[in-house]
User: Which sequence fits this backbone?
């Protein structure tokens, strides 16, 4: 499942980041496969999304979220 398909306030585990440049940028911020994140914001009209992990909140373009494969966590 792609990060762009996840509903707001859902927690997921990152499985893979398929786009090399995006993978490098996110890995520099500590977002690697296996990290659990929570989707906190989905802007309307295909705007950016924001997710949190630990005490950090990151915003990315919806187009970039298409490259992030995730696995939903049980509530």
Assistant:
């Amino acid at each position: 499942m792609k990060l762009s398909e996840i509903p707001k306030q859902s927690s997921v585990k990152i499985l893979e980041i398929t786009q090399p440049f995006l993978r490098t940028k996110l890995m520099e911020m500590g977002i690697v496969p296996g990290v659990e994140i929570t989707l906190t914001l989905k802007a309307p009209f295909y705007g950016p999304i924001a997710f949190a992990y630990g005490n950090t909140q990151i915003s990315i373009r919806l187009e970039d979220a298409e490259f992030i494969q995730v696995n939903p966590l049980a509530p």
Q: What stands out?
A: The beta strands are 11-17, 36-42, 49-53, 56-60, 68-72. The chain has a mean pLDDT of 95. The first strand starts at residue 11 and ends at 17. The longest helix spans residues 20-28.
